[in-house]
Amino acid sequence: MNVTARRGAPRRDEPSARDRLIATATELFYQDGIRAIGIDTVLAKSGVAKSTLYRNFGSKDELIAAVAAEQDRRFWQWWDHIEQANARSPRMVVEALFIGIVELISRPTFRGCPFINVAIEFPDRTHPGTAVACANKQTVRQRLRELSTAMGARNPARLGDQLALLMDGAYGQAVTIGTSNLREDLLSAVAKLIDGESDHD
């Protein structure tokens, strides 16, 4: 998404100043890093006045939290769509989630998992942005445990946690080693984990 600078009040069909700030900050923070981007850069790119920013967000930390919350909303929208499209089989849901992750991390604009990124830049878990990131990861693990239960895993908590580890590992490999053969390797690892928890007796 390319965000161009503009000034003045939006037309009725345009995003609000708050939405423009979040959209601009999301792009800039993700591509260049949160600490590397100052408020003035966000204002210049969004075309929003500083007074408007501070009416909507009391601080940069609050803007970071709003960006993380929007990323979280989009993430679960994506996840729920995959679950609904594969509702007849929990295993198909898991496989489709990992296929979707491969597609995401193969994009040239991929800069890592945004939730891991914010937690690295702000390791204090009480930071409002990091709190959103940690909650996202906890919910991912819980929902993978629920899918593991639906698949009939012998130990659904263990399988869910292992799948979550595999998911985060894929994010890390994409930005360090690359994505060559990643789809095949990732889906093979998913299948082995699931089969290893299946009751073959």
Please describe what this structure looks like.
By secondary structure, the protein is mostly helical. It has two domains: 1-58, Homeodomain-like (Arc Repressor Mutant, subunit A, Orthogonal Bundle), CATH 1.10.10; 65-195, Tetracycline Repressor, domain 2 (Orthogonal Bundle). It is built from nine helices and no strands. Residues 38-57 bind DNA.
Task: Work out the number of β strands.
Answer: 0
Largest sheet: none
The gyration radius over C-alpha positions equals 19 Å
- Kindly provide the name of the CATH class of the largest domain: Mainly Alpha
- What is the CA–CA distance across the termini? 51 Å
Number of helices: 9
CATH A-level architecture of the largest domain: Orthogonal Bundle
* Shape assignment: elongated
Order of helices and strands: HHHHHHHHH
What is the CATH homologous superfamily assignment of the largest domain? Tetracycline Repressor, domain 2
Query: What percentage of residues falls in helices of 4 or more residues?
Result: 55-70%
Poorly predicted segments: 1-7
Look at the helices and sheets and give the structural class. mainly alpha
Strand content: under 5%
Number of domains: 2
**What is the residue-mean pLDDT, rounded to a whole number?**
92
CATH topology of the largest domain: Tetracycline Repressor, domain 2
